[in-house]
Write a structure and sequence with these properties.
Helix content of chain A: 25-40%
Shape of chain A: globular
Structural class of chain B: alpha/beta
Strand order of the largest sheet of chain A: 4-5-8-6-7
Order of helices and strands of chain A: EHEHEEEHHHHHHHEEEEEEEHHH
Largest interface: A-B, 31 and 37 residues
Number of helices of chain A: 12
Number of helices of chain B: 19
Largest sheet of chain B: 7 strands, mixed
Distance between the termini of chain A: 47 Å
Distance between the termini of chain B: 25 Å
Strand order of the largest sheet of chain B: 3-5-1-12-9-10-11
Number of strands of chain A: 12
Strand content of chain A: 15-25%
Strand content of chain B: 15-25%
Oligomer: heterodimer
Number of strands of chain B: 32
Helix content of chain B: 25-40%
């Protein structure tokens, strides 16, 4: 079987101590929460981590609370299963609840955390392989190699952001709270990501994601649609979050976020602009789907053929808009 | 065999499995659970290139890693091996050539797995790359460089051409001739348990090997040959397998390697493969391109069938010659085919070797045949169920290719699923996007001939009766999760009137148990069962004679039931005694009590070259209706429900039979919808996704409700009338799904898997079809012509053939 490499395990008792440890240890340190993604990646030698800084003792990072105005504060260390079992979340934020419930399998949701899903390493069929397999292609750009096998002519990495929670959090306008050596800052979740499979986060390595803040619903309604081969286990090959604020029966504001089709989540801004001021009927939804289809550029590095995945953007945006309008 | 009796105590019921509690409580020891003092761990260094000459192997850096005890290369094991005598083309470690990404080149034994891995990665191999081929079409066009220096020519491993009767005459008698091309993508077994082996050559010079193998007997032969040790000093213990499905029925390089390493280090050496390495072991379903030309009359009767197959064999022979024959063997046992022709070609390619997976070589042509029948039925305006019922082979028929059918319950199976599914109200009547499809199949209950030529029994059972009334049953069979240990105990307990808990089974151990050829070809219940009944009946006879002598009750009056031996006319009288008391009486009379039983299949009527593949003591039959939902938007297909009927002859263990049917349905639906072994030829030939996450097979979320019906018409050759169930029920799934998709959307996907991309392409295409359009022209050897039974044929080919060199499986 595949074994973990040797590593040091640090267990800070406060977020401040965790941040100090991350700063001191430098780039070979990594945060571990549930470990459901990190440990397999370490077994496959995708990441060379010498020190793990565990969040296990940071009880303050766990738990989700709704304020009287309907805003939510979700600790980054809250397990996905805890969110799945949160009835109030299911009632008030069904799209986020659906996204969380669709992540991987029950066993992994029990260990995995929402923070881990928000910061999920980008994925690629050339990267998510064991060491011996990667040796056969002389490794790839994301991990010690010099070629991106997804697009060998390209000088960048095209690994895919495959988080289910991220598109919904962006569509809801969520804010991420980061604690670093210089103090605490709050940034829109949307600004956490970069269109680069290797450096996919704007967060500094020694910054700790501690909390996610969902603003009050304020008339927004949303939906998450996930495309994958099977009803469990699989990462999204396309995730579409749609959020609408209606004024009467017309759209006042819209957010359409695609994930799983690029290194960063993608706002379908043309489609968003198109639906504003319109009633969300079958025809509008269909045309919005066509507009969202254009900017999505899935490549051949996940399950399914990329051309088919691109086509599915039309279907999922269309259906997502109709579902959000009904929500 | 004792099939007439109606008051079975155990047969036909569902007693608790003899290994059930151990399995569910985690007490069962699989090969990877084993550990010994001073045990070393082995890792293999595998080729990162698809095809190359090995120029040099430098192990010095690996040897220098602290904790490394031995590093070996192919130089120390020059003798080749392989499962078939005609394909001895593997080496435990590659010597001069690597043939696919993953081919093992060197091995390390070290004090722990991490050290072994680290050292294995430090082995330096210099390769001289060779042109690699990844499809059989490429292989046909690329005779050089050859992947092997044997085979029919270039990179063609095997060519077969046989004609039974006269197909041209048959086609000339047809009202319509259908000509279709299909493709079935390769897929793999995906057993839960990854292969593991522990080997120890003890100080007394005996080598013991514990392994997750389905075929300890064949492994015994291969180990003995390659390691140059007499079989008497090699002992193979087949651990319970966490699933096999054909993926553990070859002798494997890693098994031989740890044997060699133990001999060199004088320490136990263990290897536990990673999931990726299991993908490299493969031996799974061959990708097959096929062409079916079938002539029919207006009433649906078949006048002739010509089937061509092109198999992508991968890098080694494995069972491939037998697989190739199997792609042409069983077309004739379901429907009447008066003239039949088969042309099969297997090529070598630079990918992990293909071999036998559940259904071995027959699911691919079954898919083509059953989809073509659906097309024929539509063109003729017949209901597909009715078409099949009209053309069924009768029971006890002899087919065009001289396969002797026994009991035949396919008609009953079709009627069951048609009725249960409400077929007549659904077929071509459901709303768009919803559809039903029907398909049938048949499978062998054990191959009629062994893998290597011999006149010995295929299964042997020894039975020991203890003074305390305990019975130990010894048999070389291998429990791979299918329940063979329970069937073994059940057969003996039924005859001796005992409880299953009164028996102990000792299995799969070449030192302790008589040979059983292995858990493959759906042969175990048929062959081991008959051997077990024979051994038990002999024991019963010994005991009955002794008891009769003592009690003066005539032997014919004595009954064995409920753990007692008694006079049927006076069950509770003075002469009644416990089985243990009877055993004491018998031992006093005969001495130590032990009996044996064995089974050899009946000779098959076919006498032509190639007649060794296809014959079986009995054929099982299955029919299935599948209901699907298929989306025009996405092309996604969801199976809503499966109705399946299986002609089992007699279900010896009801719950396990149904379990096997459901397991077959599960695996078949995975093949139908998503499973595929994909490679990236433009990226050095790597496997696209050798992992449980990215090689897609069904989860419980995709598994629909399955309604299973058993058809029980005892077969005269079967133990208690039983036939196989381990493989047959998988076969109808793939064509039934494709036919259901047609019913739902009126598009043909003539290719497995039926993925959403293909459905959408079919919807967008002019002819509403997705699939291959042509079959390559391949020059074939002179055809072996065999007159059919109704032409007065004797089973021999027209031109005289020598007996030698036939291929068996």
């Amino acid at each position: 079987m595949m074994r973990l490499p040797v590593f040091r395990y640090l267990a800070p008792k406060s977020s401040a101590e965790a941040v100090r440890m991350l700063s001191t240890e430098g780039p070979t340190a990594a945060v571990v929460a549930g470990g459901t993604d990190l440990y397999p990646n370490m077994k496959r030698r995708q990441v060379s981590v010498r020190t793990l800084v565990s969040l296990r003792r940071l009880a303050a990072l766990r738990g989700a609370q709704a304020g009287p105005d309907g805003a939510w504060r979700i600790g980054a260390g809250t397990s996905l299963m805890a969110l799945e079992r949160d009835r109030r979340l299911a009632a008030e934020r069904p799209a986020l609840h659906a996204a969380v419930k669709s992540i991987s399998t029950p066993v992994l949701r029990t260990m995995g955390t929402i923070g881990g899903n928000v910061l999920l390493d980008t994925r690629c069929n050339y990267y998510d392989q064991n060491f011996e397999w990667r040796r056969a292609v002389n490794h790839c750009l994301k991990c010690t190699g010099d070629t991106c096998w997804t697009a060998p002519g390209s000088d960048r990495c095209w690994a895919v952001n495959s988080s289910d929670s991220v598109p919904v959090l962006i569509a809801m306008g969520a804010v991420a709270r980061l604690e670093g050596p210089a103090g605490v800052r709050e940034v829109p979740v949307e600004s956490l990501y970069r269109d680069d499979g290797i450096a996919w986060l704007t967060k500094a390595k020694d910054e700790l994601l501690t909390e996610l803040v969902l603003p009050p619903p304020d008339g927004w309604r949303s939906h998450y649609g996930k495309l994958r081969r099977r009803g469990t286990f699989d990462f999204p090959v396309l995730g579409v979050a749609t959020a609408l604020r209606l004024d009467g029966d017309r759209v006042a504001e819209a957010r359409i976020v695609l994930n799983g089709v690029g290194s960063a989540p993608l706002r379908a801004k043309e489609a968003e602009a198109f639906v504003v001021g319109k009633r969300v009927d079958a025809e509008t939804a269909k045309q919005a789907g066509e507009l969202a289809f254009k900017p999505a550029k899935p490549l051949d590095n996940t399950d399914f053929e990329n051309a088919w995945r691109k086509k599915m953007v039309k279907v999922y945006v269309r259906d997502g808009l109709l579902a959000a309008a009904r929500a | 065999m004792a099939a007439e009796r109606k008051d079975w105590k155990l047969v036909g019921r569902s007693p608790r499995k003899v290994d059930g509690m151990s399995k569910v409580t985690g007490a069962t020891k699989f090969a990877d659970d084993l550990s010994m003092p001073r045990m070393l761990h082995c890792k293999l260094h595998r080729s990162p290139v698809a095809h190359a000459k090995i120029v040099s192997v430098d192990t010095s850096e690996a040897e220098a890693v602290p904790g490394v005890v031995a590093v070996i290369t192919g130089a120390c094991m020059p003798i080749p091996f392989g499962i078939l005598p005609v394909s001895q083309d593997e080496h435990a470690l590659c010597r001069d050539r690597v043939r696919f990404v993953g081919d093992p080149v060197a091995a390390v034994a070290a004090v722990d797995e991490e050290t072994a891995f680290e050292a294995a990665m430090k082995i330096k191999v210099v390769y001289e790359p060779l042109k690699a081929v990844f499809t059989p079409q490429e292989a046909l066009k690329t005779p050089e460089p050859r992947i092997h220096d044997y085979g029919d020519e270039g990179n063609v491993h095997k060519k077969i051409s046989m004609e039974f009767g006269d197909v041209e005459q048959g086609f000339s008698e047809a009202d319509q001739v259908f000509d279709d091309v299909f493709f079935f993508e390769g897929n793999t077994h995906l057993p839960m348990e990854q292969h593991a082996t522990l080997a120890w050559r003890d100080p007394d010079g005996k080598l013991t090997v514990w392994s997750s193998t389905q075929t300890p007997h064949y492994l015994h032969r291969a180990m003995s040959k390659v390691l140059e040790m007499p079989p008497s000093r090699v002992r193979i213990v087949a651990c319970p397998n966490g699933g096999g499905f054909g993926g553990k029925s070859d002798p494997f390089n890693h098994e031989i390697v740890v044997g060699k390493l133990s001999m060199l280090t004088n320490r136990p050496v263990k290897i536990a493969l990673t999931r990726e390495e299991v993908f490299y072991c493969h031996r799974g379903r061959h990708p097959v391109l096929m062409r079916f030309k079938t002539g029919v009359k207006q009433d649906g009767s078949i006048t002739a069938m010509a089937c061509k197959t092109l198999l992508d064999g991968g890098a080694y022979g494995s069972y491939g010659v037998a697989s190739t024959y199997y792609t042409g063997a069983l077309q004739t046992v379901t429907y009447k085919v008066p003239h039949y022709r088969f042309d099969g070609v297997r090529c070598f390619t630079n990918k992990p070797p293909c071999g036998p997976k559940r259904g071995h070589g027959t699911p691919q042509p079954r898919f083509g045949l059953e989809v073509q029948l659906d097309k024929i039925a539509e063109r003729l305006g017949l209901d597909p169920a009715e078409l099949r019922l009209r053309t069924l082979q009768p029971a006890h028929a002899l087919t065009a290719n001289f396969l002797k059918i026994g009991s035949m319950g396919l008609g009953a199976c079709i009627r069951k699923v048609v009725e249960a599914s409400g077929w007549k109200d659904k077929f071509r009547k459901l709303p768009r996007g919803r559809g039903v499809g029907l398909a049938c199949s048949s499978y062998i209950s054990g191959a009629g001939l062994p893998i290597y030529w011999n006149a010995l029994p295929h299964s042997g059972v020894q039975l020991k009766v203890d003074r305390g009334g305990g019975v130990t049953v010894f048999c070389g069979e291998t429990e791979i999760g299918q329940g063979s240990d329970t069937i073994l105990a059940q057969c003996v307990a039924e005859v001796l009137g005992l409880d299953l808990l009164d028996l102990r089974v000792v299995v799969g151990d070449t030192d302790l148990t008589p040979v059983d050829l292995g858990s493959y070809s759906s042969r175990v219940t048929m062959m081991m069962g008959n051997a077990a009944i024979q051994a038990a009946e002999r024991a019963r006879e010994l005991i009955a004679k002794a008891v009769s002598e003592k009690t003066k009750v005539p032997v014919a009056q004595l009954e064995f039931a409920g753990g007692r031996v008694f006079d049927v006319s006076d069950p509770t009288g003075k002469t009644s005694m416990s089985f243990a008391e009877a055993a004491v009486v018998a031992e006093a009379k005969w001495g130590t009590l032990g009996t044996v039983g064995s089974y050899t299949p009946p000779p098959s009527p076919g006498r032509y070259r190639g007649a060794g593949v296809g014959p079986s003591p009995a054929y099982s039959y299955s029919a299935a209706v599948v209901e699907v939902e298929a989306s025009e938007d996405t092309g996604m297909v969801t199976v809503k429900k499966v109705w399946v009927a299986h002609d089992i002859g007699r279900a010896i263990h009801k719950a396990m039979t149904v379990g096997q049917v459901e397991g077959g349905v599960y695996m078949g639906l995975g093949e139908a919808l998503m499973e595929e072994m994909s490679y990236r030829p433009n990226r050095f030939g790597v496997h696209k996704m050798p992992s449980m996450l990215e090689y897609k097979s069904l989860t419980t979320m995709e598994m629909p409700e399955v309604e299973t019906h058993l058809v029980e018409d005892p077969d005269p050759n079967g133990p208690f009338g039983g036939k196989e169930v381990g493989q047959g029920p998988l076969l109808p799934m793939m064509p039934a799904v494709a036919n259901a998709v047609y019913d739902a959307l009126r598009v043909r996907v003539d290719e497995i898997p039926v993925s959403p991309e293909k459905v959408l392409r079919a919807l967008a295409s002019k002819d509403r079809r997705f699939g291959p359009t042509s079959f390559p022209d391949i020059e074939m050897p002179p055809v072996t012509k065999v007159p059919t039974p109704w032409q007065g044929g004797s089973g021999r080919a027209t031109e005289h053939e020598t007996q030698a060199g036939g291929v068996r499986s």
